[in-house]
């Protein structure tokens, strides 16, 4: 999730656990701890220039349910020994406040489609629950209000009630998102079977800033189907558009480490396309045609043979005004799509 969501989640969790007299300190400490795991981005930038490694190692060791409790315990011990006495006054409550402010970070990240390696260093695929977009005001605002209220109320009981209410509302929203995702995926499977399609894998992803409009990606032989479902406006079967993917080029390069790593990370939700002489792989979970967020050139064809190249990340070209206008128009169309049914194609 975005940094603001992680800050207010960490602050709310820590402040709800710490003693009332330490509430403002807990809000600040929890906010800092809530954003700490994402600092792995800077570590990876310093350690490697491989874009595939930077993408697939993000949210790994820094988001692990094995490493974060250890890191939290170390931070707790340092606070207890070197701090201003608050942790020493209530050591158990502060241990829980610090550890949970850290651990809730990857748990929230797992609700997005990016992929969070909560079981690192075990070689299991990343957790992708896909219930919410990376920015969702309906999740963040209740926690933001709760933290502001608790900062103002300080030790008064109303502060604790505000924090618990904010955490309850935001958690309920996450639960709703999983229920909505399940409903959309069940509908999509039924409708694809009716169309005679046989996808290998299928997922629904919440669209930007809401959980009312969902995008469905279903990967099959030779390509993938894309459909949308508005929980407000749509009735009846979903409509799908089939897009081609170069399975032959992907299979010819399947042994390349970059290809294997990306396939493991994205669970096979990947488009392969030959652009010029290069094989470009796009992560279908983030973005939409034609502008996917993560695209990597991994191989080059010369004299009919594929050869590995230094991996290059290809970013959507938003430098031009017309491309930015197109992106803005797609967002506006998405908002309208929430309230209006799909047009028959």
From TrEMBL:
Keywords: Membrane, Transmembrane, Transmembrane helix
Lineage: superkingdom: Bacteria
Residues spanning the membrane: 60-79, 94-116, 128-152, 158-179
The keyword Transcription regulation is assigned to this record: no
Descriptive protein name: Membrane protein
Species the sequence originates in: Stenotrophomonas ginsengisoli
Lineage: Bacteria, Pseudomonadati, Pseudomonadota, Gammaproteobacteria, Lysobacterales
